[in-house]
Predict the 3D structure of the following.
Amino acid sequence: MRKSFTQIICFCFFATAAFAQNNMESGYQLINNYMAKEYGGNQDNFAIIQNEKGIMYFGNGAGMLEFDGAKWQVYSLLNAATAPRSLANGE
């Protein structure tokens, strides 16, 4: 009895694992990595926030970065000696 129960549990586990990524489109990349020279900022990112339009903002060692999914924009801060360590959505 115990052996068959263990076999059923193992079968369910491996069957679930085998079909876990079945809904992915072939060749669709879920993660994009960007180098600091691609976005024009520093390699240190401290904070991330997304607004309701889907635009991403990053607190970076060079200032604040904005990414709309296609292009990067760098906003320098008045006090260039400090980096934004936290971000908040003001809307």
Summary: The chain has a mean pLDDT of 80.
